[in-house]
Write the structure tokens for this entry.
Amino acid sequence: MKSYDFLIVGAGLFGATFAYKAKQRGLRCLVIDKRNHAGGNVYCKNEHGINIHYYGAHIFHTNDKPVWDFVNRFASFNRYTNSPVANYKGELYNLPFNMNTFYKLWKVTTPQQAQDKINEQIESLKISHPRNLEEQALKLVGTDIYEKLIKGYTEKQWGRKACDLPSFIIKRLPVRFTFDNNYFNDLYQGIPIGGYNKIIDGLLDGVEVKLNTNYLADRDYFNSLADKIVYTGPIDEYFEYRFGTLEYRSLRFEHEHLDVPNFQGNAVVNYTDAAVPYTRIIEHKHFEFGTQPTTIISREYSAEWKPGMEQYYPVNNEENNNRFIRYQQLSSLTNNVIFGGRLAEYKYYDMHQVIASALMKTKKLFGAMAQA
Ligand code: FAD
Ligand code: UDP
């Protein structure tokens, strides 16, 4: 008999949720992570009394009531509503694109005037079926907003021309003809009071966790420990890149501690001008309405991923998606390994979607195990 029922590779939200559900079933789990902390990309580092979103700004938002109830078992959520501001050449605009943005740009005061202005700008472009992000964005909001608030930011973020990017990326952003700066449409939103580590600690409570431990450095040994493996790392790395590398965008953060109580008055300020090298500045204390005497900001720079760097955003273009399908086919033939999470599924998953996916997979799997 092996020491564990499951060896879970990765202590991010997928691995931790899986471990929690397995533990509830009385199953024995070992969670390993190559990083020196649990939590994956939702990890927060506390400095000067401020929770730093160490791998980028994370705002929990969902319409999924069961997932919302699930995370609320581990932490209470505050009333934070994401309302980023865009800075274009020193001028500030509200995001997502809404009546406040339209008023600032064109001094229009009614939804009809705003819609007329957009229609006037896109009439001559004749875009009926947008073929890429540029066309999609133009069709949604017209040339002024595209030029000032989308093109520069998007091309910095993705390192590619907007006309070479898929249109679905921009569809994530709401466009509203109301005065509503809420970045998300979801019913539930907030930041866990005490930071995301509280949720991770709750999920992993009573579960054996080994940090600084890379599964791929000795996979035969780790496989010998457990009946089943749950793998949440990059799928191409698991299969030794046999079909080639799946591309990602990476990020670099410059964290800075400043001796002022309030640097920018908002958690997130996007810099949409191509000439500014970073995409956004995060001021972490505002996620939790912090009143500390000093502040911590992070400038976020986007970069092409290269081996050795952190994988952040999957580049889901046709070539990468086709390559992923080949890896996925291989994974379905791999016995006793469950692939899950954003890296193993090569998917831009939000937190609630990763949790939902882990809950669904465990439900199915443990149901089948109970029947066997
Ligand atoms: P991860 O958190 O990446 O966890 C995988 C873990 O596996 C990592 O800890 C890694 O070290 C470990 N691992 C990998 N390979 C190995 C190995 N060989 N051996 C051992 N360990 C290994 N979602 C939202 O809902 N709202 C947001 O505002 C939001 N903002 C985001 C901002 C940024 C910049 C990014 C990149 C993502 C954001 N997300 C957001 C998405 C969110 O981060 C993910 O949905 C979630 O963290 C994914 O969890 P995961 O467990 O799948 O992956
Ligand atoms: N985007 C933009 N201008 C902005 C913010 C976002 O053009 O000020 C575009 C950009 O292409 C980005 C996409 O909208 O990749 C989705 O933005 P979101 O904020 O959802 O990205 P994330 O939070 O995942 O970085």
Summary: The mean pLDDT is 96. The first strand starts at residue 4 and ends at 9. The CA atoms of residues 7 and 30 lie 5 Å apart. The chain has eleven helices and 16 strands.
